Amino acid sequence: MIEMARSLLTHDVTGASAPDSTMGMQPMSNAINVVAISGGLQRPSRTLALTDAIVAALGAALPIETRLIELGEIGGRLAGALTRTQVPADLDAQIRAIETADALVVASPVYRASYTGLFKHLFDLVHHEALIDVPVLLAATGGSERHALVIDHQLRPLFSFFQARTLPIGVYASESDFDQYQITNPALRARIALAVDRAVPQLRPHALSVAAA
């Protein structure tokens, strides 16, 4: 039943007009399709830097193909779509990419003790059965450590609604972990490494199944 629901949501997005960012990686036939969503509304941003670092660590551990969705680039037009049918075609391709990913990396800045409204609006437009059993690595950035619980109190419940498989360790980064939007704190890099290390056993079966297909 679950596989049927996901197969109905599978679409070819390679011909879409939206740019497909692979973060410098070449396509690999046995790679895991990872879609990374950076919820930062500006560029450069600490949220984007954190997203890039997590994806790079995943790519060092497993064969992956990545697509980056930056909310700051699509948020203005996305905000005007009240329903999925109102979403412009190129943005709909981004949502379809989320719905058909093998795994997600999602990161949001903390705004008033939660993820941003546009971040929530994006996932309001994702089909409620599209992410069943999809592994999701959660991340967030905030001004200080006092917001660190946003991952478990806000992000994890959101993806539990989708019946996604949130990975065991999320990554929270505060402003002091960066200098000029670059990660400078070794402790943050260690947290990223630990999160990826715990994620790999759950993502490796996806890589094996893709290679066998």
From TrEMBL:
Taxonomy, superkingdom: Bacteria
Oxidoreductase as UniProt keyword: yes
A Pfam family reported for this protein in Swiss-Prot or TrEMBL: FMN_red
Keyword check for Nucleotidyltransferase: no
InterPro entries per UniProt: Flavoprotein-like_sf, FMN_Rdtase-like_dom, FMN_Rdtase_MsuE-like, NAD(P)H-dep_FMN_reductase
NADPH-dependent FMN reductase-like domain mapped to chain residues: 33-176
GO molecular function terms listed in the Swiss-Prot or TrEMBL record: oxidoreductase activity
Keywords noted in UniProt: Flavoprotein, FMN, Oxidoreductase
Entry similarity comment: Belongs to the SsuE family.
Protein name per the record: FMN reductase
